[in-house]
Amino acid sequence: MTSRTTVVNSQRVKNLQVRGFYSSKRISLPPSYTRDFIPANKTHIPTGETAKAWSHLEHLQEEVAPLQDCEVGLLIGYNCSEALLPREIVSGQENQPFDCSAKFQETCLNDHLLTGPDLTNILVGVLCRFRKGLVAVMCDIERMFHQFHVKVEDQDYLRFLWWESGNLESKPSTYRMKVHLFGAASSPGCANFGLKHLAAQGQGQYGEDTIRFIQRNFYVDDGLASVPTEKEAIQLVKEASELCQAGKLRLHKFVSNNENVMASIPEEERAVIKDQDMALSLPHMERALGVECCITSDSFKFGIQVKSNPSTRRGVLSTVASVYDPLGFMAPFVLHGKQILQQMCREKIGWDEELPESLRPQWESWITDLPNLADMEVRRCYLPSDFGNIKRFELHHFSDASTSGYGMCTYLRAVDESDEVHCSLVMGKSRVSPTKVMTIPRLELSAAVVAVRASDMLRNELEIQDLKEYFWTDSTVVLGYINNDARRFQVFVANRIQRIKSSTKPEQWAYVASEDNPADHAFRGLTAEQLKTSNWFSGPKFLWHKELPVQECKVGDVKDDDPELRKVLVFNTQAKEDRSLLNRFEKFSDWSRVVQAVARLKRRVKEHKGVKQRTDESTSLEERKEAEVEEITCVCKCLGGSHSVYGREFKDTSSATSYAGFLNLAC
Predict the structure, then answer these.
(1) Dihedral (C-alpha) 266, 270, 273, 279: value to the nearest 10 degrees?
(2) Which of 105, 160, 169, 265 has the greatest number of beta carbons closer than 10 A?
(3) DSSP letter for each residue of 341-392
(4) Are 422 and 383 in contact (CB under 8 A)?
(5) Residue 13 class from Cβ within 10 Å (0-12 exposed, 13-18 middle, 19+ buried)?
(6) CA gap 116, 289 in Å, rounded
(7) For the chain, how long is the longest CA-to-CA vector?
């Protein structure tokens, strides 16, 4: 064995067993290592007082064995891994990964492999369905990728060199893999297709619940299921194992929160309990798709091991990203860490530069508070065990935003036949606001879009029939945008309104007061203690009432000066041009030429009608006078009032005496 700096004399010991203080059951230990001294003393041994000091261990206070007057020989479960590390680790052959992305001469195997269609189930969807039933079951497909063979003609692509005993000086042997690799880009698609094909082959031979479990509730090789009763769980485990066995797949590492279900499973198919100390009856902890799950209390836990990362931008990112919370239960707490990281980006701090003094107190406070998430506990099942027959399910989505962030949260509201109500947090999301300055209405609209996207996903993944959905916001501006049908908006707002209306109806949106909106926590952020005492996990009080409150219409009107309104320009286009005889008169240089032209025109009309014979003589005085009277009449009718034509003023009149006056003036 070796520590970080020195070698420790040690021997490997196998077949050790321990027995509980109050129990006759014996537990086999994994291979251990001897030491000349134990790096611990009696003060490290938990007692009843130790359990009393921790809220999640209080119920075990009476079960803790008393402290014995003896020498310390072995502390099981004590964290010695930081002090002792194996000098050499030899990986086993099971699930051994291959680096198919390693490049040689600018190429690698994954560059030439097709990933195929994405047949992997949504991780969040599998977790959400895992919370529906009272009885939970988890299992694993043994060496899943290795159970699916590669075609013989394709196996040469999987050739590799092997040096016996790791001696690189010796001549290597050439092998080729006949099965899909852990690390190959094509393996997940091929394995998922094979698993779903196997389920399809079982149609008609096994129950629909079993087929659906194989098709929908596996995330790669990890299966999670929940059913209402233990009888259904036992049947599901039995049929699923038989169906997979028909395809030469083995389901193992079964875990359930029900003792009778576990008793029905062969012992060799059960998961090995690693972290449970039978003497102290510590909770049995497992991981459900990476989320820490306490089998004993049937709840999700959030024990975070804080690593000693440097106080740099790189270290801050590593620490914030280490909080694995796919369902967003801790989203308000994580938001503070994201905001610190965003502020470092705004100030353009380098990846390995130290935190500025202005941000250091906030970061140290957040890091100190991070271990307190271990006190958080979220029930796995949406409903308590004593809840009655369900009459209806409802999903309630809340959204809110500010200049510092925006987010949403969704609650499942169940009403039983006796009108009892229960609400549970399904998922939450918190996001920092974009670095580019945006208006509050735009941010609140963005939060509403996040809620709609979560709704689309949950509606498909929860598989609940006749599910009603409600959307709540405290922004009357957003409600005005959604209920508007007449106005046109800027591109940013118009696109988001279109996204909202493509999945929801305006009648589904309602107003909620800011003090009752739990999404307020999603953008403000909370400490661990504040999160524990807030309404984030339970939802607003009005959701627990038998009847939802009658909503008053608080839809804001879209004002004319709203900056999001698109300005409309109206152009009046004249389709028909109205031209009078006066436009033709303007083409003549003087009045006499107009008179002569009109007189000739009138003569041609008479000749065409046969009233007068055709002649080439010039117009007579009578013809010009008649033409002049006609012109003056036309001018007066077209213009009206008093106007000037060719320097002479004419007045609108229709009397014969006036025409004489015009004639005198014209002559």
Answers:
(1) -20
(2) 265
(3) HHHHHHTT--TTSBPPTTTHHHHHHHHHHGGGGGG-EEESSSS-TT---EEE
(4) yes
(5) exposed
(6) 23
(7) 150
Per-residue CA distances from 32 to 12, 72, 87, 452 (Å)? 6, 16, 14, 53
Report the range out of 69-83, 230-244, 616-630 with the highest average pLDDT: 230-244
What φ, ψ does residue 210 adopt, rounded to 5°? -70, -45
Domain edges within the chain: 1-90, 109-270, 313-377, 382-544, 584-666
User: To 10 degrees, the CA torsion angle through 233, 235, 237, 242?
Assistant: -170
How far is the C-alpha of 387 from the C-alpha of 416, rounded, in Å? 7
**358: its two tokens:** 């202005």
Whole-number pLDDT of residue 632:
79
pLDDT band at 426 (very low <50, low <70, confident <90, very high): very high
What is the four-CA torsion angle of 52, 56, 61, 65, rounded to 10 degrees? -110
Give kind and range of the element (H or E) at residue 17.
strand 17-19
Question: How far apart, in whole angstroms, are the C-alpha atoms of residue 123 and residue 126?
Answer: 5
Residue 271 CA to residue 252 CA, distance in Å, equals 7
Q: How far is CA 627 from CA 90, 585, 619, 623, in A?
A: 120, 13, 10, 6
Cα torsion for 209, 214, 215, 217, to the nearest 10°?
Answer: 90
Structure tokens at 553: 């219409």
On the question of pLDDT at 545 being above 90, the answer is yes
Task: Give the integer Cα–Cα distance in Å for 595 and 593.
Answer: 5
| CB neighbours of residue 131 within 10 Å | 22
Alpha helices (H) in 437-509, listed in sequence order:
440-461, 476-483, 491-503
Reading the block at residue 595, the tokens are 């008179």
pTM of the model: 0.71
Give yes or no for a contact between 147 and 246, defined as CB atoms under 8 angstroms apart.
no
Q: Which H/E stretch holds residue 236? A: helix 230-246
Phi, psi dihedral angles at 127 (to 5 degrees): -65, -40
CA dist., res. 350 & res. 347, Å (int): 9
Give the confidence band of 337 by pLDDT, cuts at 50, 70, 90.
very high
Residue range 382-544 in CATH 3.30.420: yes
Q: For position 88, what pLDDT does the model report?
A: 40
Residues 6+ apart with CB under 8 A from 70: none
- The DSSP code for 208 is H
Quick check: helix, strand or coil at residue 503? helix
